[in-house]
Amino acid sequence: MRAPKWPVACGVALTLALLLALVGVQPLAGQTDDPLADPVVLGAWLYEGNCVRCHGGYETAQLARGMDEAELIAATEGGRDGCKIAWARRDGGPFSAREIEALAAYMLAWEALGGPPALPPLPPQPTPTPTPTPPGDQALEPTPSPTLAMSAELKLAVESSTLARGAHLYTTQCYRCHQSYERARQGKNLALETVERTITNGKSASSMKAFSRRKGGDLGLAEIRAIVAYIGAWESLGEEPALPDVLFTPPTPDPVKSLPILPVQVAPVTGDAVSGGELYLVYCALCHGAAGEGDLGPALARPWQGLRPDLTIRSIIQRGVPGSIMPTWSDATGGPLTDQQIDDLVALIQSWATP
Q1: Which of 23-37, 242-256, 292-306 has the lowest mean pLDDT?
Q2: Which residues contact 107 (CB under 8 A, 6 or more apart)?
Q3: Residue 212: beta bridge partners?
Q4: CA distance linking residue 57 with residue 23, whole number of Å
Q5: Which residues are CB-neighbours of 167 under 8 A, at least 6 positions away?
Q6: Rounded mean pLDDT of 168-187?
Q7: What pLDDT sits at residue 207?
Q8: Burial of 342 (0-12, 13-18, 19+ CB in 10 A)
Q9: Within a 10 A sphere around the Cβ of 312, how many other Cβ atoms?
Q10: What is the rounded distance in angstroms from the CA atom of residue 314 to the CA atom of residue 348?
Q11: For residue 324, what are the β-bridge partners?
Q12: How high is the pLDDT of residue 317?
């Protein structure tokens, strides 16, 4: 039996190890003691070294609240739809795709646990380099959390279901302008996709701001969809869903947030119903009927829900209804009608409204 050539085998192994070290090959996952190999740990380390200076600790910022993974990664990359600083390397920032995903993993782990994930001692941060400053900004203020302090009873109720969460969010976000949903009925006769789009993007014609966090608002996609679920349940039942009363305690009015967007601050639409009647016969009667009774398009001689139906009607005429045969009529967007002519039509349609 031939004896093994141990010296030769050991020499080959040592030579191979030295070559791998020289070309920078890293050990396989699971074969390293580097704590930053774990995405959540790496994300915590990156957050500590880059995000704390603007946003503060994650327990204060809660940047991932209401976001899914794709939304959070997009927001973390920065630029147009997220952080004011472009962090992604492809946009000139310092972070690779792996590092962006790690940051997202850390924040999502925080949200999933409702508190900080268990972490080993983090390595020291490297010598800091100047943080990129967005054009025109001298300093970035910490991102405020929109979350209000909750009693234990309210927290339990909010976390009981998506519907309950939506009812609470409606109360904290929508009540200040629309009052109770029973009074406003913003979603009546509307597809839920339209309701979600309106909450997400806002409506400039009625001073309704965009609520999506990606458009400067306070809500993530999951939170917007919870409100839509509440509105959908209300309209499906025709009455308030059975939910704990604690969800419907209106927040104390915030003069800074609420006053600028109160719809009553927008001047009433004033027009001439007689002139509107002449315009209606030319542009509208073919689809909506000679007296607004409806034909190809819906009836217009009906009650219009909401606190400011004049603004709702004007917005629909100006912009049209995406996905339908109703086009835009405003000359500002390619239509044939001036603002005054649209206001005349609004006056006519409101004169038809039945109690």
Answers
A1: 23-37
A2: 43, 47, 58, 63, 64, 72
A3: 219
A4: 38
A5: 230, 241, 243, 247, 248
A6: 81
A7: 59
A8: buried
A9: 18
A10: 11
A11: none
A12: 92
Q: Would you state the torsion angle of the CA atoms of residues 260, 240, 243, 147, taken in this order, to the nearest 10 degrees?
A: -10
Element (H, E) at 216: none
The pLDDT assigned to 40 comes to: 92
The predicted model scores a pTM of 0.39
pLDDT of residue 320: 84
Q: Which of 57-61, 125-129, 286-290 has the lowest mean pLDDT?
A: 125-129
H helices present in 202-320, as ranges: 221-237, 255-258, 273-283, 285-288, 309-319
8 A C-beta contact, residue 78 and residue 91: yes
Q: Both tokens of residue 232?
A: 């959908």
pLDDT at 183 over 90: no
The amino acid at 178: H
In the structure encoding, which two tokens stand for residue 198, read together? 């309106």
Exposure of 277 in the CB half-sphere (CA atoms within 13 A): 5
Name the amino acid, one letter, at 318: Q
Distance CA 74, CA 102 (A): 13
Q: Which two tokens stand for residue 71?
A: 């939304």
* 3 state DSSP class of 3: coil
Model confidence over 235-270: pLDDT tens digits? 989 888 888 888 887 665 554 444 444 444 567 888
Q: Which two tokens stand for residue 70?
A: 């794709």
- Integer Cα distance of 284 and 320 in angstroms: 12
CA angle at residue 230 from 229 to 231, to 5 degrees? 90
- Secondary structure class of 239 (helix, strand, coil): coil
Q: 């093994």: which residue's tokens?
A: 4
What would the DSSP string read from start to end of 126-141?
PPP-PPP--TT-S--P
Is residue 209 packed enough to be buried (19+ CB in 10 Å), middle (13-18) or exposed (0-12)?
A: middle
Give me 345's structure tokens.
């039509």
For residue range 39-57, list pLDDT tens digits in order: 999 999 898 888 877 777 8
Residue-level pLDDT at 155: 84
Rg (CA), the chain: 29
- Joined tokens for residue 325: 């045969």
